Amino acid sequence: MPSGKLTGTAGAPVGDAAESKQPPPVTPTAIPPAHPEGEPRATREPLTIVIAADTFAPDVNGAARFAERLAAGLAGRGHHVHVVTPSVGHRNHGVFTENIEGQDITVHRLPGVRWPPHDWLRFVWPWRSKHYARKVLDAVQPDVVHSQSHIVIGRGLTRIAHQRGIPVIATNHVMAENIIDFTTLPPVLDKIVVKLAWDDAKRTFDMSRAVTTPTRKAAEFLEDTIDITGVIPISCGIDKRNYTPDLTPREHHRVLFVGRLTTEKHVEVTLAAIAKLAPELPNITFDIVGGGDQRRNLEQTAQRLGVSDRVTFHGRVDEQQLRASYGTADVFAIASIAELQSIATMEAMASGLPIVAANAVALPHLVQDGVNGYLFEPGDVDDLADKLRRVLTASPEEYLRMQQASLDGVEIHDIEKTLDTFEKLYRGEPLS
Fold first, then answer.
1. For burial by CB atoms within 10 Å, which of 230, 235, 288, 384 has the most?
2. Which of 2, 14, 280, 259 is nearest to 270 (CA)?
3. Residue ranges of region Disordered (predicted)?
4. How many angstroms separate the CA atoms of 9 and 60, rounded?
5. 427 alpha carbon, distance to own chain's centre
6. What string of H, E and C letters represents the secondary structure of 218-272?
7. Phi and psi, residue 338, nearest 5°
């Protein structure tokens, strides 16, 4: 795994996910013990933290991006951070030092297998997860395990940590309904698969000290879905210092989307809205940053709608290009109906962009209708076109007001506040 930043934004593909040579593995005996004999766990600083992540760099999705920022942020505060995740390629497994967000992180890459129906998904054989969990916990002896997924790696580590009395914090980034497109099962079995997945999630979460998810809406969804209580909303957080808003007056015509090109993102709805607006806004353009299994279909849709000359598919880009895309856009449009938060939307807000978003799941927590942009009825092309028109034709004063509202609204999502909250949970301290 090469050094340097591997991914840029959640929901925003950046960089290539191709396999690359990893540095020589560090043997488990080289991992320093976390608990010197006789030293009380509760008073020792810094903490040793194991982060269980079914998806991590170089993957390009929201859960992976959050796990990277969390790991790097905790390491930057002096904690000993170990990430457990699938390898890139079945043979490239071992223990590596990887530079994530400028911090050297110990990454335990378990033998990973590609899932052919998906464009990047890798997984660890479920029946091996407990075996790997025992090996990692034996070597690292952590103060706490933080699971980012209840599906495979997090599931195994949660169970073994629970057996050993190691506290577990669980964060849910998953809507099981989002993965049924890739099960390759007949539709009649999808509901059964989803129910089994959520039943198992409940058993896993019941073994955790605390369960978190990025927003209050996502917490309510989880509580209603699996009948648990006390789910804590904690923003994934962003470092707004990385984004430079352009508040100078200019002509507005550039629409931007950043994210994975998958079915639940419904980018085709935005394409249709662009086609609807083209006759009255002749300069309108649409930049799409990200890769995914739907790219070919979306390119064909753009051609069918007659807007291919207005739409640019940038694919996966690096961090510098990503920030430049935010800097040159005039409005961020997201038609997704399955966002538990949307880091890409927060990055757009930190870049001073008005947002037009589907009124679905957690997006209304980021977009205040008529304040920092507009909400539209999910799937309604006419409504989306109308809201985009309002932003792109707004007076300079109105547009600047929406920009400032986005900047003000993202303040509560500062990554430092997120790290403060998780540190309290790791130590078993009450949240203020």
1. 384
2. 259
3. 1-41
4. 7
5. 25
6. HHHHHHHHHCCCCCEECCCCECHHHCCCCCCCCCCCEEEEECCCCHHHCHHHHHH
7. -140, 40
Nearest to 289 by CA among 267, 274, 269, 304: 267
Give, to the nearest 10 degrees, the angle between helix 381-392 and helix 267-277: 60
CATH code of 28-237+414-427, in short, is 3.40.50.2000
Same fold, 28-237+414-427 and 240-412: yes
In sequence order, what are the residues at sequence separation of 6 or more whose Cβ sits closer than 8 angstroms to the Cβ of residue 401?
none
Q: What is 240-412's CATH number, 3.40.50.2000, 3.10.20.30, 3.40.190.10, 3.60.15.10?
A: 3.40.50.2000
- Per the model's pLDDT, the better-predicted residue between 319 and 377 turns out to be 377
Q: Give dist(CA 421, CA 416) in Å, integer.
A: 9
Chain centroid to CA 20: 23
Instruction: Write the CA distances from 24 to 1, 88, 298, integer angstroms.
Output: 10, 14, 41
Residue 86 CA to residue 108 CA, distance in Å, equals: 8
Angle between helices 187-205 and 216-226 (to 10 degrees): 100
CA pseudo-torsion sign 342, 348, 352, 358:
negative
Residue 36: DSSP 8-state: -
Backbone angles phi, psi at 120, to 5 degrees: -145, -15
Element (H, E) at 136: helix 129-140
Buried b (16+ CB within 10 A) or exposed e, 110-139: bbbeeeeeebbbbbbeeeebeebbeebbeb
Ranges of each domain in the chain: 28-237+414-427, 240-412
Contacts of 426 by beta carbon, 8 Å cutoff, 6+ apart: 47, 49, 143, 144, 146, 167, 169
pLDDT tens for 321-358 read 999 999 999 999 999 988 888 899 999 999 999 999 99
Give the predicted TM-score (pTM) of the model.
0.77
Q: pLDDT of 139-195, one tens digit each?
A: 999 999 999 988 899 999 999 999 999 999 999 987 655 555 545 556 666 677 777
What's the CA gap between 316 and 13, in Å, rounded? Answer: 5
